Amino acid sequence: MTTENRAHHLHLRAEDVGGYALLPNSPEQVAPIAARLDEPTFVARNREFETWRGSLAGETVVVTSTGVGGPSTALAVEELAALGVGTMIRVGVSGSMRPNTRNGELAVVTGAIRDEGTTKQYLPVEFPAVATTDVVRALQEAAAGQGVPHQCGLVHTKDSYYGEMEPERMPLAAELTERLGIWRRGGAICSEMETAAVFIVGSVLNVRTGSVVMMWSEQAVRDGGPAPAVEPLYDTAVAAMRRLVHTAVGAGVA
Ligand SMILES: O=P(O)(O)O[C@H]1O[C@H](CO)[C@@H](O)[C@H]1O
Ligand SMILES: O=c1cc[nH]c(=O)[nH]1
């Protein structure tokens, strides 16, 4: 905490947050997600961390950007948890690892392959990075309820975007390519850069966590074509959070 009782990196105070957080990656994604909450208000910005606050069924929900990758995501989860947030959902974009995935399909993530460095400073690799069951269920029900095509499964979390996109360019080309093949054969459905940190830091701090990521099809990634529309992703994440809030306050799901 800073001298003004603000979290060191997020610049938030305990009274700024409630029990729930949605975690996109980029500051530009925060306001559009917060616009789906009641009474969205800008709260703070420092470095890559921008936070807006709103509410669902009268409960405070914050939307905070995590920045790219494990280190900054771990900071965000740590500081939000210290301020009292107990439920967090990552909301992002990923590259599909399955040939028949449609461009823009969602992945409701059940677990993450820890092919990154941050979480190894929390728990040994034998410890699984898994989502919390009721958050997974809320995300599945929200996607189904909105008619959004989705798959449920494992995500690959890595540190090097270009190591995934252009492994052949790297000195470690053979190893990177082999490992990507291994994750595919093991059943990974897509690849991104933050979910393992959300799940592992969440486990250590006793936070409920989930992750929903939109998948670029392999062809769209290869073509560098336009990104699929993110509205179904944002709608699904907010609808899932609404379900979790309604369950907690004992109201029916709207
Ligand atoms: O679309 P977002 O959520 O930023 O996430 C994906 O895109 C970034 C790389 O371009 C990585 O952070 C990866 O996880
Ligand atoms: O393929 C992709 C697309 C988005 N983000 C990633 O990390 N990988």
From TrEMBL:
Classification via Pfam families: PNP_UDP_1 (PF01048)
Q: Which UniProt keywords apply?
A: Glycosyltransferase, Transferase
Which reaction equation describes what this protein catalyses? uridine + phosphate = alpha-D-ribose 1-phosphate + uracil
Give GO terms: molecular function aspect only.
Answer: uridine phosphorylase activity
Q: Where is the Nucleoside phosphorylase domain?
A: 21-246
Superkingdom of origin organism: Bacteria
SUPFAM superfamilies, A to Z: Purine and uridine phosphorylases
Enzyme category, top tier: transferase
Q: Which GO terms describe its biological process?
A: nucleoside catabolic process
Q: What is its EC number?
A: 2.4.2.3
* Glycosyltransferase found in the keyword field: yes
**InterPro entries (alphabetical):** Nucleoside_phosphorylase_CS, Nucleoside_phosphorylase_d, Nucleoside_phosphorylase_sf
Which stretches are annotated as coiled coil? none
Cellular component, GO annotation: cytosol
Q: Which family does it belong to?
A: Belongs to the PNP/UDP phosphorylase family.
What PANTHER family does its record include? FI09636P-RELATED (PTHR43691:SF11), URIDINE PHOSPHORYLASE (PTHR43691)
Q: What is this protein called?
A: Uridine phosphorylase
Species of provenance: Actinocrispum wychmicini
Lineage summary: Bacteria, Bacillati, Actinomycetota, Actinomycetes, Pseudonocardiales
